[in-house]
Amino acid sequence: QPYAASAILSFPAEGKIDGNAPCNSYSGTLDAPYPWFEIKDLSATRAACAGLEAEGTFFAALLAMTQSEVSGDVLILRNEDGHEMVFTAVE
Q1: What pLDDT shows up at residue 40?
Q2: Which contacts (CB < 8 Å, 24+ apart) does range 37-46 have?
Q3: Are 38 and 46 within 8 A, CB to CB?
Q4: Could you write out the DSSP letters of every residue in 23-45?
Q5: Nearest Cα to 74, choosing from 61, 88, 64, 90?
Q6: Close Cβ partners of 89 (under 8 Å, ≥ 6 residues apart)
Q7: DSSP output for the chain
Q8: What is the pLDDT of residues 38-87, one digit of tens each?
C-alpha cells in the first residue's frame, strides 16, 4: 500500500543508514553486503507527533526488509513475504 507519510532513508557512510521518519530522525548499521539488507542497532530520537503510528509502521517495515535493488534513482527494498518499500532519490 502507498505510504501516506513522509520518510527519508540515507546512506551517509559504508555500512550506515540514517534518515527522518514522520516524527523522528533515526540511524542504524547495515549488517549485510549488497544486495542483502539487514539493519542492526536501529535508534531514533523520541519526539512525539501526530504521525507516531505511521512511524511505527515505517520502522517495522524497514526492519523486515532483507534485499535491496538499485535501479537508476530508485531504491527498492523487499522481503521474502513479497513486501516492498520504494524510495526515490531527491536532489
Answers
A1: 95
A2: 37/65, 37/66, 37/67, 37/68, 37/77, 38/66, 39/63, 39/65
A3: no
A4: S-EEEEEE-S-TTB--EEEEEE-
A5: 88
A6: 73, 74, 75
A7: ----S--EEE--STTEEEEE-SS-EEEEEE-S-TTB--EEEEEE-----TTHHHHHHHHHHHHH--EEEEETTEEEEE-TTS-EEEEE---
A8: 999 999 999 989 889 999 999 999 999 999 999 999 999 999 999 999 99
CB 83 within 8 A of CB 61: yes
Taking all residues of the chain, what is their mean pLDDT, rounded to a whole number?
Answer: 94
Distance of alpha carbon 31 from alpha carbon 53, whole angstroms: 26
Q: Is-cis flag, bond preceding 35, omega within 30?
A: yes
The structure's pTM equals 0.90
